[in-house]
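Q: What would this complex look like in 3D?
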Amino acid sequence: MTDDAVETRRTAPATLHDVAREAGVSLATASRSLNGSTRKVNEEYRQRVLAAAAKLNYSPNLSAQAVARGSTTTVALLVADIADPYFSQMAAGVVREADRERLIVTMAATERDTERELDLVRTLRGQRPRVMILAASRREGDPNNDALEAELRAFESNGGRVAFVSSAAGEFHAVQLDNRAGAEALARELIGLGYRRFAAVTGAEGIRTADERLAGFRAGLEAGGGTLERIVRPAFTRDGGYEGMTQLIEEGLDGIELVFAGNDVMAVGAMSAIRDAGLTPGTDVAVAGFDDIPTVRDVTPPLTTVRIPLEEVGRRALRLALDEPDAVDESPVHTEVVLRESTPRRG
Amino acid sequence: MTDDAVETRRTAPATLHDVAREAGVSLATASRSLNGSTRKVNEEYRQRVLAAAAKLNYSPNLSAQAVARGSTTTVALLVADIADPYFSQMAAGVVREADRERLIVTMAATERDTERELDLVRTLRGQRPRVMILAASRREGDPNNDALEAELRAFESNGGRVAFVSSAAGEFHAVQLDNRAGAEALARELIGLGYRRFAAVTGAEGIRTADERLAGFRAGLEAGGGTLERIVRPAFTRDGGYEGMTQLIEEGLDGIELVFAGNDVMAVGAMSAIRDAGLTPGTDVAVAGFDDIPTVRDVTPPLTTVRIPLEEVGRRALRLALDEPDAVDESPVHTEVVLRESTPRRG
DNA sequence: TTGAAAGCGATACCAA
DNA sequence: TTGGTATCGCTTTCAA
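A: Here is my prediction, written as structure tokens for the whole assembly.
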């Protein structure tokens, strides 16, 4: 019984060694033919190696390559919640750009728990990813912040690249979302439409994104003579939006003309709450959101919001981490107020 | 200048070797203390190693572990489109279950291109993932099907596990979605509500999911005396739904009482098209979808659909691949018709 | 150009 | 129990 007899039922994947033997060349030559950078390999040998690889259905072991080369082809992405359109759109951008660079994306969800986030970063560091992208929103004054930062610093000092998607330029590179300016511009536009009396339904205090949007909105109102009469702070999710709005209604809307939701999923939840209370969003009380997720075109009435090009944000986050620091566009992402029927002109 | 002098500014991550030296034990002992399965290590040594690891901020190199152990802790997930809620919900389930098993998920998007899918499978095979989960829908009679199957067979024969999310039990393990039965049940319920004249807006012929839902729906109608008078087959996406519905309206609705969309994102697009045409969904023409993505509770009127527990499907897909074949629940996922206001009782 | 051999960072067998 | 060392699959010097 020869080696060939068992070859078809071998249980382990073909190794480069197998390919080299099959092609009758050395390991080094096989390596150079298949993966080598500057290929200085006799064409005939090269062909033999390629044929052997095809015959054996060879697929290079990325782990082994990583160990030998000292670097991986992996990008790690951390989001709060994969099923949330805000994050899934961004993730789609990251994956698309990674694909262009022939990089592989590993994805994890913090579930909005900063301790989990820290754990995940530690675990993912074991992968030695080329890049770590942190998109879950920051928590102001969180006890885990320092440890997280230390962990990321360590990662960087080992040659890893870090990119945040964030509202502020912190100690790390970040794709900056100008939440404040966006919300302020929105507020001005709403004032321009004739609204004066507002409420806000937004996430818990400390969630940076929520805080900045609220601050911006408030600033815009003050500049224009509007008043922010009520604020509720449920969870930063669709159900949070529903609950927050319900609470507002139960306590009495009391002249509130427009409710600003901290993000679009909350706004969508809020609209359902309004409807379930027997009122009509846009008519009885106007609603505005933030993000411009795809869904908001399809709710009734379509939602006024601040557009963030989420897919592009994801792509930029990866570019930011990959490119030379000076070749990188660090300017804040362009946001844009999109007025729709959920905020009709008043009077 | 001693070794210690540069230690803090070392640029490479600490290795197990470093830890062992720092702790004054052998490589083997360090390995056993940190990652070993059956730890038979002197407690004092163990503590020394742990301390050294902490001091050096050691994080085991997963690639090196993978090559030494001959197996990874990776799960590869293939979806059609990460930003589509159908897939992102499923992905969330996979990631959650993977997290419980301390597995890492790498994610890729086929963008509904079977050739890309094949390429991705080839690339991902290089990772030697423990599991590959294929969730992008199958195409009947696609020229790449055979190559894909061969690739997956090879992966399996190398010890990898494959799990499909699929409508039919094929040659691989699959979490089965009973699209046919679900659509049929939906049709019966709609007949029960008094509807008789239907149209369908669904994906291109050959998309298995679309075909099966359509077939099931048709069967349910026939059993109940309804007629499927028109079928349009745009893209299997939100915009496809919008376009398809627009086409239907332009050609003249002509007595059509209800439009069945092949999935919820299409249904949501269709509802917007109805509204943009000056009609009212649910009133002028009823709409039903399939999947029960979160959004459909928040559109107006809320959408009648067939519920698939998408998160659970994701979790089950991973379990299916991980568990012993006989410990696994291969029964089709439970689907359920959810009647909402988009299909009010007629007459 | 080619091949032998020394790593890469871990695991695990085998003596001691 | 502990430590020495072969090994995993691949890359990359270094001679030839």
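A: To summarize the key features: Residues 16-60 of chain A form a domain with the 434 Repressor (Amino-terminal Domain) fold (CATH 1.10.260.40). Residues 208-224 of chain A form the longest helix (17 residues).
Q: Very helpful, thank you.
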